Structure formats: structure tokens, C-alpha cells
Amino acid sequence: xxxxxxxxxxxxxxxxxxxxxxxxxxxxxxxxxxxxxxxxxxxxxxxxxxxxxxxxxxxxxxxxxxxxxxxxxxxxxxxxxxxxxxxxxxxxxxxxxxxxxxxxxxxxxxxxxxxxxxxxxxxxxxxxxxxxxx
Length: 134
Hints:
The protein is an alpha/beta fold. It has a single domain, classed as Transcription Regulator spoIIAA (2-Layer Sandwich). It is 38% helix and 22% strand. The protein is built from five helices and seven strands, in the order E-E-E-H-E-E-H-E-H-E-H-H. The protein has helices at residues 25-37, 63-72, 89-100, 112-119, 125-132; strands at residues 4-8, 13-17, 21-23, 46-50, 54-56, 81-85, 106-109. Strand 6, helix 3 (89-100) and strand 7 form a beta-alpha-beta unit. Helix 1 packs parallel to helix 2. It is globular and about 40 Å long.
């Protein structure tokens, strides 16, 4: 398993999933960039980023570079909501600080049920689980 993403243009939904374990800033940045460079990225209105089981191994000051990446692709970005599933306390704090540097709506949670509820996609929870099993 590796860091990966999938876009479902018919649902205006994209999911990115990080392999559990220690994550460098470069890994996170690379996945965010390749996701934004996908030709279907402008069709993503709702995004799920699954970071369960991840531990961050980088200085918190690097988060400004991630915010800059998001700003760089803003002309292609049609997201109405991004939801991050994260279940580690320190990493949750990193994500919340990252959210504070953005102008866009982001939410975090620790369970798939909550993510499904927040995203309000027109799919059952069972179908949602299949879609995010990438």
C-alpha cells in the first residue's frame, strides 16, 4: 500500500489516502500536488483525506508551504468541503493549525461515519466505504 488518490467525477468527490506510519512533509506535499494536477481535479467539490494511523515527522512551520500549494491551484479548485480523517492527537493539532491558514472550509473527524455525515454525498454508507477503499 502507498499514498494514493482517486477522483469520482460523477459524484464530484475525490479521496486521498495516506499509508499509515511516519509521514514526511514531502510525502504529504507530493500527494496534494499530484491530486491537484489531475485533469479531473476541477470536478472535485467534496474531498476526503484519510490520514488514520499517520504520524507526522516534520516541523510545523512547513504547513505554510502546503497552504501556498493550495493557493497556487485555487483557479482549478472548486471544493466546497474538505474532510480529513485523523486519529492521532498531535497530528490532529497539525491539521487544525493547517486549517487556520486556509480560507476554505475544512473539517476533521476521526471516524468514517462522521466523514460520511459531513460530506453528505448521495451514496449509502456501504457504497461510501467501497468508494474510499482505494
